[in-house]
């Protein structure tokens, strides 16, 4: 097979693996790993060293630099403090305990030198959102634990990468030199990394904030500058580039009034492509004989990591918190290792082997063994364990609402007042800000993006209402969440004949979701009614006031939206089926201002009589 065909095959299989992971709701790392092992050591179709030759090392280096920069863009220090003591402890105390204990165990069990043992310990502290999020969606633990796991993965991803880079830099600096000289070289590398990373971030932030680049060049310019800074840092101080770009991303993430949403979305897309291809290539370089060579000591080490190190980190981190015993048991079991560990370990192994560290070759199969075992074992057993402990989330009856305009905020408030969980998503910051002022949970950005997949909190939410004016995004969001919630739990407003034609061109499944509140109910109609003073009103249905009486009283002046039954289950008025609320139910409807005035007049007349 020609080199071009192999490259094309890697690209196609990367997308296929990502699609398969999305369909079966498992971390993408698993099918990518299997694909790489099949192409490489099993079938012998792909030999990355022969395919890339001298370009393999630069390709892996640049790819890891982009991945670390993109990951560090998600680290906002205020979020570490803002997600509870347990999360803060896990990404500080827990991370350090994991690093130190695993390093010591690796030295004594595997017989590696302290440098390689420390590197392995630093590499496997990271869980990461790409492996945690699919597991949380599959397991659906209670809200408190889901949030702890989610934010631990998001925050520890860049912090763990920074720890691994620092350990690696110290190892490189200490090679064949006295300890004092090693400290000096390490200090130089760290100083350069932080200084150049901070300076480049401030300069790039200034350029983006003042519009020095046209909009269409911002993403490309950012990527080019990141790679340029990476190369410059390496040229000034050997192997300092990874630290520099990691610091650069962290500084930009914490720069106030710097809108990074579009750049972050672009970097996420690029990272998905790079990670997918990189992981297949790295897995194809493995040899099954390397796993055999690890022997029984690796199995013992792995068992201790699973059943002792993680529980130790969780129990120490939980001191002073209100977590129960069973909460800590589940947190102790869910800690799959992810993409960062695999990519960084392979890069460091390549560099260290070139520098004469023969033991470095064993790091990659050992890291991959940890990744495979934690992802597979915990994916299969986490949900049964959560069920056994009674920590599964109750049925998800809440709503994700796309659109945070004035009308949808009123709808969301009426649902929240009835105890129905809601979360508003919008790409308009002003709408999100006003929703926050109304104490409504929000997500700022495109809810169908990769960033949303890693960051949006869907705990308690199992249905989607598309109620936004964004005609281009509405179909994408609707189809995206059909695969998350199921097609019958996604509802959108009919946008009129123009939207009907557009939806018919897209998919029949999307057109069927345009059933919210009635066939003639459009976003424009709802927004107009609300602008004219219509209010969301809840009306009980009783034996003496049936739904027929309700319809007779209000007629076309009321637009029924929801009905809450006597078991507190919420039903939606749609065109799919006729909904007739019974006695004991409550109808939630948009009542026109004219209707309310008439009601007041009738009430006053009745009181006078």
Automatic annotation (TrEMBL):
Gene Ontology molecular-function annotations: antiporter activity
Bilayer disposition of the protein: Multi-pass membrane protein
Domain of life the protein comes from: Bacteria
Segments traversing the membrane: 6-22, 29-49, 55-75, 87-110, 116-136, 148-172, 178-204, 216-236, 242-258, 270-288, 294-318, 330-350, 356-377
Domain Cation/H+ exchanger transmembrane: 13-386
PANTHER family per UniProt: NA(+)/H(+) ANTIPORTER 1, NA(+)_H(+) ANTIPORTER 2-RELATED
Localization, UniProt: Cell membrane
Keyword Membrane recorded: yes
This protein's name: Sodium:proton exchanger
Residue intervals of the RCK N-terminal domain: 399-489
Gene Ontology CC terms, in alphabetical order: plasma membrane
Gene Ontology biological process terms, A to Z: potassium ion transport; proton transmembrane transport
Keyword terms, alphabetized: Antiport, Cell membrane, Ion transport, Membrane, Transmembrane, Transmembrane helix, Transport
């Amino acid at each position: 097979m020609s080199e071009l065909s192999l490259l094309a095959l890697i690209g196609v299989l990367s997308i296929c693996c990502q699609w398969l992971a999305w369909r079966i709701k498992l971390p993408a790392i698993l099918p990518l790993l299997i694909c790489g092992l099949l192409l490489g050591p099993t079938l012998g179709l792909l030999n990355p060293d022969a395919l890339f030759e001298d370009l393999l090392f630069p390709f892996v280096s640049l790819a890891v630099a982009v991945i670390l920069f993109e990951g560090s863009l998600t680290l906002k220090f205020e979020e570490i403090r803002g997600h509870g003591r347990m999360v803060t402890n896990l990404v500080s105390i827990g991370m350090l305990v994991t690093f130190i204990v695993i390093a010591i165990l690796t030295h004594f069990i595997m017989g590696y030198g302290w440098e390689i043992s420390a590197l392995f310990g630093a590499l496997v502290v990271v869980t990461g959102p790409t492996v945690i999020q699919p597991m949380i969606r599959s397991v659906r633990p209670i809200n408190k634990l889901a949030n702890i796991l989610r934010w631990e993965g998001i925050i520890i991803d860049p912090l763990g990468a920074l720890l691994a880079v620092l350990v690696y830099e110290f190892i490189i600096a200490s090679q064949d030199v006295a300890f004092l000289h090693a400290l000096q070289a390490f200090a130089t590398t760290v100083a350069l990394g932080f200084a150049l990373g901070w300076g480049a971030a401030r300069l790039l932030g200034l350029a983006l904030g003042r519009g020095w680049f046209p909009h269409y060049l911002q993403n490309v310019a950012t990527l080019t500058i990141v790679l340029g800074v990476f190369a410059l840092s390496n040229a000034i101080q050997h192997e300092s580039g990874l630290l520099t770009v990691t610091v650069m991303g962290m500084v930009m993430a914490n720069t106030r009034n710097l809108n990074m949403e579009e750049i972050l979305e672009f970097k996420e897309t690029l990272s998905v492509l790079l990670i997918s291809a990189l992981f297949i290539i790295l897995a194809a370089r493995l040899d099954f004989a390397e796993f055999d060579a690890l022997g029984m000591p690796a199995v013992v080490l792995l068992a201790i990591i699973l059943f002792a190190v993680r529980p130790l980190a969780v129990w120490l981190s939980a001191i002073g918190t209100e977590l129960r015993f069973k909460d800590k048991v589940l947190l102790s079991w869910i800690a799959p290792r992810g993409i960062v560990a695999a990519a960084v370990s392979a890069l460091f192994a390549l560099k260290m082997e070139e520098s004469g560290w023969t033991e470095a070759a064993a790091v990659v199969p050992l890291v991959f063994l940890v990744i495979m075992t934690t992802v597979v074992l915990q994916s299969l057993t986490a949900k049964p364990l959560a069920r056994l402990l009674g920590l599964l989330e109750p049925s998800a009856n809440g709503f994700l609402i796309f659109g945070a305009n004035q009308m949808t905020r009123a709808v969301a408030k009426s649902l929240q007042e009835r105890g129905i969980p809601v979360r508003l998503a919008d790409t308009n910051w002003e709408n999100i800000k006003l929703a926050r002022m109304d104490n409504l949970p929000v997500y700022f950005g495109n809810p169908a993006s990769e960033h949303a997949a890693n960051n949006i909190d869907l705990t308690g939410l199992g249905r989607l209402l598309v109620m936004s004016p964004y005609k281009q995004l509405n179909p994408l969001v609707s189809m995206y969440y059909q695969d998350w919630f199921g097609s019958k739990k996604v509802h959108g407003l009919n946008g009129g004949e123009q939207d009907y034609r557009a939806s018919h061109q897209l998919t029949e499944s999307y057109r069927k979701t345009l059933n919210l509140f009635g066939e003639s109910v459009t976003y424009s109609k709802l927004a107009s009614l609300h602008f004219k003073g219509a209010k969301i009103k809840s009306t009980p249905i009783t034996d003496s006031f049936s739904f027929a009486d309700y319809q007779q009283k209000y007629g076309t002046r009321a637009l029924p939206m929801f009905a809450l039954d006597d078991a507190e289950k919420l039903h939606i008025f749609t065109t799919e089926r006729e909904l007739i609320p019974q006695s004991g139910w409550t109808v939630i409807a948009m009542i026109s201002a004219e209707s309310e005035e008439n009601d007041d007049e009738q009430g006053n007349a009745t009181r006078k009589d």
